Amino acid sequence: MTCKKLLDGKVALITGAAGAIGYGICEVLLENGCTIAASDIDSEKLAEFGDDIEKLSPGKTSTVVMDVTDTASVKNGFSDVLQKFGRIDIVIHNAGIAYVSKIMDMDLKKFQLLEKVNVEGTLIILAEAARCFLEQKTQGDIVIMSTKNVPSPSAGFGAYSCTKAACHQLGRIASLEFAEYGIRVNMVAPDAVFSEGKYKSGLWDLVGADRMKARGINEKELHEYYRNRNLLKSAVTGRDVGNAVLYFVSRQSPTTGATIPVDGGLPDATPR
Length: 272
Hints:
Elements: E1 11-15, H1 20-31, E2 35-40, H2 43-56, E3 61-65, H3 71-85, E4 90-93, H4 108-136, E5 140-145, H5 158-178, E6 183-190, E7 195-196, E8 199-200, H6 202-215, H7 219-228, H8 238-249, E9 259-262
Parallel strand pairs: 1-2, 1-4, 2-3, 4-5, 5-6, 6-9
Antiparallel strand pairs: 7-8
């Protein structure tokens, strides 16, 4: 007799999937019976990622190239997933970009790009996910990848911190607006995730060198810095993030508008 898994029969669409956090989420959800549609803007990277997650659970994965800042691309992406699997039950919005700069040195065009991806992209995904669930006449779950930088921002990381704060706030507002339809919206707020398996964090590939320079440390020391600054002295992995996502999407409690920190415990991220 086969035991029923938490997410048997569920289909999840994950944006910005082809990286460390995305891989950790896919691993955990697939292990719990979910079918996965992984999306990313980078088609070459996504193709390799798709091959890897297919090995985890043959026949239960697919990929779709999607630009979260383009409404037509998002609509087409959702449509492709619906055509293949017949339904979408879970949307995990993981797409996002970062930029290291102090306020007085900020390049406005780079700041505006973060606004477009991290804020507008979130708005577009939230709206399309809600429409999808309403058209299906099903309840649904949306999980937004927030960050520890919302309650605890870092100097030199203002563009990322404030645009992700806007992303987070959109999630909270969506939880208020979508609750009447049985749609839940929750957030997961990790600290730095550097890798999961062979996958490195695309965000840290972009900003790691600048963060090391700002702190006067090398790559190994950077990993140690992030581990040692939390109360549990714990590295944060993609699977850790995946487990937090699983808690929300498996509906183990009646929860919406909530945030799970995945950071090992950061004293400066607690409410003041």
